[in-house]
Amino acid sequence: MKKIVIIGLDGVPFELIKDFSDKGVMPNTSQIIQEGDLRCMSSSLPEVSSVAWSSIITGKNPAEHGIFGFTELYPNTYQIRFPNFLDLKERPFWERVKENSIIINLPATYPVREMRGVHISGFVSIDLERSVYPKELIPKLKEFGYQLDVDSEKAHHSLDLFLEDLDKTLEARIKTYRYLWESYKWGIFMLVFTGTDRLMHFLWSAYEDENHKYHQQFLDHFRKIDEVIGQIHNRLDSNDLLIILSDHGFEGLDKDIYINYLLRKEGFLKFEDTQPEWRNISSESLAFALDPARIYLNLKGNYPKGKLSKEDKEIVLRDLEGLFSSLEVEGKRVIKSIYRKEEIYKGPFLESAPDLVLVGEKGFNLKANIKAKNLSDRGVFTGKHTQDNAFILVNRDLLESSSKKTSVFDVAKIVIGSAENSYSKR
User: Fold this and answer.
1) pLDDT tens digit string along 303-356?
2) pLDDT tens digits for 82-96?
3) Got the DSSP string for 4-73?
4) Which of 51, 290, 302, 390 could anchor a disulfide with 41, C-beta 3.0 to 4.6 Å?
């Protein structure tokens, strides 16, 4: 029986995987590139892990699978909620094939549910008990020192402690993969490394600067992952399918840009008193943003203090597009692309989609943060997400012709097609 293995490197951009493969940092990955097919891959909009991984595992766009971001508002309220795996409206690939699957550390899949095989959810997972199926696996994970995520809070106080925790989390993840590989029967195996995203957020500067204090630690993290990639590659037969991919790309960060501050400054967002709180949104408000840069019109009938009529919707959309397209900070254009929901989404949940989605220019990280006191700032992060430079690497010539750009929506089709083909030949 042909096996299918998927290795996820959260956030890793095409340029970095190519660079490390060319320079010998990731020799095993380099070998697979020489044998197979490496492509740049576009991510979801917005380019955040919850949306991108949901798109990867379903092959559907957000208006079909129902996940538009890490946060949403409860219907007809201004109260923030955090969507989870229960909100996913489309079945992931492992529920659509006949093989048993092993799924390790997959973001946006908490809480787990019964399935054929093993499922350990990833970021954002709240407690181990609801993050593991079957539950009988929990004592073994505790024995390995398994952590649901890196403790990123440590990076705000000590990068040394953060890197120590990053290594500890990675080692437990590797122990878990080895144990499950040998101990369970499976046809599909998916292992996601999310420490890469955490590392690049805090230490992208260490990647770019060879003289940086933590440059070698940055390289070492990828070397350790490459060793796992090599082990897995060597365990596969020539007929087995290996897919290595990221959910979005990354680049250096120059400025954080606070979209709700801009909307307040320009009169689109107003509050009933001086406290910028969701509960204080005024009926005079025309629009607001949810992270990272999803713009929602304060439409009558959609929100308790919605005033904007559908007849005036087009006027406000044009005004917002003009505002965002002309936005500059320190003489640099901030917004790269502005999309209306009908341009990028299609499906039964289109009405729940943001009215506009913004993508920042290089170096500009767009954020909602309703309490921001300035338009721009610079926090502890040195790296930010990108939409157009994720990557996918397949160990054979399996992707569509180069005339068609590969996207996160193509992955599930490849996996399901390969699984069905394997099953039909038995």
Assistant:
1) 999 999 989 999 999 999 999 999 999 999 999 999 999 999 999 999 999 999
2) 999 999 999 999 999
3) EEEEEETT--HHHHHHHHHTTSSHHHHHHHHHSEEEEEE--SS--HHHHHHHHHH---HHHH---SS-EE
4) 390
